[in-house]
Fold this protein.
Amino acid sequence: MGPPGTGKTLLAKAVAGEAGVPVPGGPTNRPEVLDLALLRKGRLDRQVVVDKPNVRGREATYKVHTRFLTLDAGGDLRKLAAHTTGYAGAEIIGRRKS
């Protein structure tokens, strides 16, 4: 999530291989584990920070990843999103699978 015009759609398309431009590298929510060789000049010369989703973004992620599941009557995705502050998309998906 972010303000309009910050390149979110282009970034998503580039990562998915749909932007028509080469993308050396890929996304990570763990930049501290990147090999320093990748960060040398001429390799990954640009880092784009994408914040973790806010409550609306987490709720939207839960909706996408539970759309084919039958939820309990008390299954409130908004409440679940509120309890997962600080979770990245992969962590939300992992929680959904548990």
In short: The mean pLDDT is 79. The CA atoms of residues 29 and 88 lie 7 Å apart. DSSP finds four helices and no strands in the chain.
